Amino acid sequence: MDVIADFLRLAGSLGLFLYGMRVMSDGLQRTAGERLQRILDFMAGNRVVAMLTGFLITAMLQSSSATTVLLVGFVNAGLLSLVQAVGVILGANVGTTLTGWIVALLGFTVDISGAALPAIALGAIFYFVRRFKRPELGRTIIGFGLLFLGLMFLGDSVPDAEEYPRFLEFTAAMAGPGLFRVLVFVGIGTLLTVMLQSSSAAMAVTITMAYAGWIDYRMAAAIILGENIGTTITATLAALGGSVTARRTARAHVMFNLVGVLWMLAVFEPALRLVDIIVPGAAVDASLATHLAVFHSMFNIANALLFLGFTPRFAALVERLVPDRPEPDLMPIESTSVLRHLEDYMHRSPGLYLYQVRNEVSRMANQTGELYDLAARLVVDPSQTDETRMREAEQLEELIDRMREEISHFLAACSSEDLSLETAEAVTNLLRITQELERIADSSYNLCRLAERARRKDRSFSRSETEELREYVEVVARFLRFTQRNLNEILTPEELEAARSNEAAVDNGRASLKRRARKRLEKHKDVRSELLLIDIAGHLEHIGDFCMNIAEAHAGLEKQSRGALARSGDR
Predict the structure, then answer these.
(1) CA angle centred on 438, ends 436 and 439, rounded to 5°
(2) What is the pLDDT of residues 139-196, one digit of tens each?
(3) CB 3.0 to 4.6 Å from 55: which of 91, 125, 250, 397, for a disulfide?
(4) Nearest 5°: CA angle at 148, between 272 and 571?
(5) CA distance linking residue 409 with residue 400, whole number of Å
(6) Rg of the Cα trace of the chain?
(7) How far apart are CA 322 and CA 252, in angstroms?
(8) In this structure, are 342 and 252 located in the same domain?
């Protein structure tokens, strides 16, 4: 029973520590989420910038796995190249060493028990008292307090290893020299990280067990190497079914960590001696925790610097190992989508992952533009309509429907989280934009069907009617292109006014087209052709209305983003 009680105390202490880290991380992310989104815009810089970006985001997320999953999503959406992604991975591995330093510096060398409860009390004031209106700051401070409590309990709950002589005999036998013994503990570290699904949790367990005397310095260092292998599993799973570049990104993460562990094993003993030189004192008790934190940081920094100079060549090697596969022009949404890979991590910071949703919405808008371009060609010249083009239109319309379904599902999952006011309004506006894009796709597909019916029933327009329709189609196309272009830009008040001008041009164009059609009807022209022309003009006007709705929703998104940035700047 004592064994079970010791285990439960240890598990509870670890859980409290990780929960405190999660709450603290959530608070930091929600406070700086908009700034992090802007930082992501600079990822396209050089390798050093990408590496620093990976370090910063991982330090905020407190999870290299979450960073690489987010990274896979960006690569899958075509926003980052493989070379840039590799740079971010290098920084992410360095950023994940922060957990080891928190445990080493605060867990065993500083009496933090007196600071834990006051921190929670201060955070509760900011979180619950409406007068302060700083719930995210309160969440961050409460997280710090819970983390301190977890560290305190973690250090106190590990039982004395001398009470378990059989385990000490086993570890003494495994503590001798030899590569096989080191590989055993590398494997233990890999399995531990896979089971916990968190290298931060595995690192905390490792340092705590070493501090309590359950494992020695050499064993703990080997386990840490294994944890760097285990942390690559999550990104690998996220890349399954993704684009070839996403699979390459996950493969690069695995190869980077695996090669790093292999070369470190070759210099394992000298590396341990180097840490002994850097950190004064024997590797026992609190000094042992510092030794392990230095070892972890030294390994990841050296590995990152080693690969940084060879990033393009390393990326080229990964491209050869994961070759391109012939892919159809229209891939199923299940193969091209990335949001389903992010949902497990979205709860960490919904505001941050909305950045990825906006990229997916932009991709949906591009598909919608393709469908409209096809419809425009067919309605102007129905003779081009054939089975192949109609099948292409149907596939595009189905793809857009599925994208809307998945984006809406992801946004609904976001809505179930504890969102800030700005993030909740952003979710609402993104839902509206996806709905309007789907309506544009539906109207475009209906235009294709009208063109098909015109060809099938041999209805044609005169040269003047065709020219009028061509001009009107181009007016709507300009408005749609304006909408697509501005989805990835800040919509200024001037551009919102330009959107209203575009909508007025669309409305005037339809009125002019209908007026001329009615005059021709009065002169007993072909009634069916004129009615067809009026139907086409109606669908085109609807597309203009939908584009205006998107512009208004997009303006709301930018207003919320600017408001959040202003508030975070005030802090």
Answers:
(1) 65
(2) 888 887 887 787 777 767 666 555 555 555 555 566 666 788 889 889 888 888 877 7
(3) 91
(4) 105
(5) 14
(6) 30
(7) 10
(8) no
Q: Alpha-carbon dihedral of residues 481, 483, 485, 490, nearest 10 degrees?
A: 160
Provide the angle, in degrees to the nearest 10, between the axes of the packed helices 217-230 and 179-196: 50
Residue 337 has pLDDT above 50, yes or no: yes
Q: Give Cα 62 to chain centroid, integer Å.
A: 14
- Range(s) of the domain holding residue 456: 338-570
In the block, tokens 């919405």 appear at: 361
How many domains, the chain? 2
**What's the gap between Cα 544 and its chain centre?**
32
Instruction: Give domain status of residue 333, yes or no.
Output: no
* pTM above threshold 0.85: no
Query: How far is 452 from 339, CA to CA, in rounded Å?
Result: 35
Residues 355/488, Cβ–Cβ less than 8 Å: no
**Alpha helices (runs of H) in 41-108, residue ranges in sequence order:** 47-61, 64-76, 82-95, 98-107
121 and 227 co-located in one domain: yes
56: tokens are 């910063």
What is the domain-level CATH number for residue 409? 1.20.58.220
Return d(Cα 340, Cα 403) in angstroms, integer. Answer: 11
Three-state SS at 132: coil
Q: How many CA atoms lie within 13 A of 487 on its CB side?
A: 29
